[in-house]
What does this fold into?
Amino acid sequence: MTQAAAGARLIVHADDFGLSEAVNRGVLAAHENGIVTSTSIMAGGAAFEHAAALARSCRSLDVGVHLTLTEQRPVAEAVPSLVDSSGNFAPHATRFAMRYLSGEVALADVRAELAAQIRRAREHGITPTHLDGHQHVHVLPGIARVVAELARENGIRAVRVPAERLRGYMLSDLSHLKRVAEQLAIGALCALSPLAPLKRVDRFVGFYFGGRLNEQNLRTLLLALPARRTAELMCHPGLDDPASPYRRWGYSWAAETAALSSPAIRALLEERGVRLIGYRDV
It folds into this structure.
């Protein structure tokens, strides 16, 4: 066993459960055949009910709520400051953040929508172990306070604080510097966040390789896990879906599913003494 990783605990967390049936099936495959231990469900996702049914049939999969204020449609009935004339959320976190910071978004609408998402998950048989956010909008000032309050009100002990530390390999490819800049911005928002008193992991990884976590990149992350700490690895498994409207993201869902299900990756974790856990164990 490598001493550097001895005693490390790892949550392997699949985002976007409920986005599509192809994503849902990939998450379940990466759990049943691979190292995924946890996921978070999108209450407003097109395939939410499919995801909820899968979760109810697979109790070993740890499930939280993937709080969503972008790209989808609201769960709450009346949140006018969150939607456009067609009833859709902002198309991306950057657009949402600009509207929010300019005062166009009402926190009362944010609270109503996020509460409705948690409530819908519960009504479909999900007992959330944690909260996180689609495109990490839950760490924005003000919204983070609302999320912390909703977590306490719903008896949810844990939350994702997505502050990934800068590593040397992140600076080796200039084409990904925009990702590094986004990573640093999220880290700054997390530094003094009101989410901090909630249960959280010691280390978060996976933002830099978001959507492109092939086996080589996954190995890079696993080899750098902290000693005797608890970490969360964010990932995005799925199955091939040529008709997906989200192909514009450029995500390699099937490659991530394959990497997360690789016997070589599981052997690496065993060799390094890393114990797989879920958010329910934090």
In short: Residues 107-123 form the longest helix (17 residues). Residues 1-5 have pLDDT under 50 and may be disordered.
